[in-house]
């Protein structure tokens, strides 16, 4: 039985996406570079990973086809304070009815990234 799932997000510029995610703290673990153009990249954060491939289009849609969800054990509000002036904030930190404290940002291609931490108690 497979042990993990890693989303593949298609973007207009793989290297730009990888650089943007690295600025957030993701770690680049692999990429393909053909004649100076990146066609694929894999980045990790904690136990999670995301891959980027060519062929995606930019979008002005309210929401994209894929959202990324990053679980945080602690320090969600401090993380938001660190990121808020460097990213496009869609929703600031808020508590949800399903027991999470979350904030949502948009990446350079307007995909949502939600950071979520369980509410204590």
Automatic annotation (TrEMBL):
A Pfam family hit: Glyoxalase
Domain VOC: from-to ranges: 1-118
Database matches in SUPFAM superfamilies: Glyoxalase/Bleomycin resistance protein/Dihydroxybiphenyl dioxygenase (SSF54593)
PROSITE patterns: VOC
Highest taxon listed in the record's lineage: Bacteria
InterPro entries reported in the protein's UniProt record: Glyas_Bleomycin-R_OHBP_Dase, Glyas_Fos-R_dOase_dom, VOC_core
Protein name: VOC domain-containing protein
